[in-house]
User: Which sequence fits this backbone?
């Protein structure tokens, strides 16, 4: 009877340990998964707490991007550029002789767009033109400036020829509806 009880006890113990060891292993695995999920929830709550800060940072960076795109646009914006130059000439005594956009020159992360300009003006009006041009929000460089005196009567004393270079961020994109 004792031997039967011992054999029955060993059998029950073996069956329970076999059955319980699988359950214990499952409990350990699921406990590890639960801790991993709790950690992800804590990280999510920490990120949620920083969400207003991220939104504020996004708004600041977006504002900075818009400012930089005015300086270095992603399109050539020919109409806008011509309107600004025309407005400059109307603020002084000028006569445009030529405004000739040239071919694009691809550089590292931007494209150069040279524009040959020839105009007639008075000395001080020409200086004001370049001063106002320097105050544009868009980057415009003036290169290869040549000045010559005009020997004909009239309001203009100089003829000026130069190349304006403006810049476009990235590849030149076609303008929608521009002519």
Assistant:
């Amino acid at each position: 009877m004792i031997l039967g009880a011992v054999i029955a006890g060993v059998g029950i113990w073996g069956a329970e340990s076999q059955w319980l060891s699988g359950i214990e292993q499952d409990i350990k695995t699921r406990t590890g998964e639960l801790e991993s999920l709790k950690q992800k929830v804590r990280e999510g709550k920490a990120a949620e707490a920083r969400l207003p800060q991220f939104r504020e940072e996004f708004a600041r960076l977006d504002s900075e991007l818009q400012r930089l795109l005015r300086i270095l646009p992603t399109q050539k914006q020919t109409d806008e550029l011509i309107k600004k130059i025309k407005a400059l000439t109307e603020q002084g005594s000028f006569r445009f002789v030529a405004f000739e956009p040239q071919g694009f020159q691809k550089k590292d992360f931007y494209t150069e767009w040279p524009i040959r300009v020839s105009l007639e003006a008075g000395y001080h009006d020409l200086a004001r033109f370049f001063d106002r041009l320097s105050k544009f929000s868009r980057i415009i460089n003036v290169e290869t400036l040549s000045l010559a005196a005009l020997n004909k009567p009239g309001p203009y004393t100089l003829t000026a020829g130069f190349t304006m270079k403006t810049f476009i961020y990235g590849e030149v994109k076609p303008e929608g509806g521009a002519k």
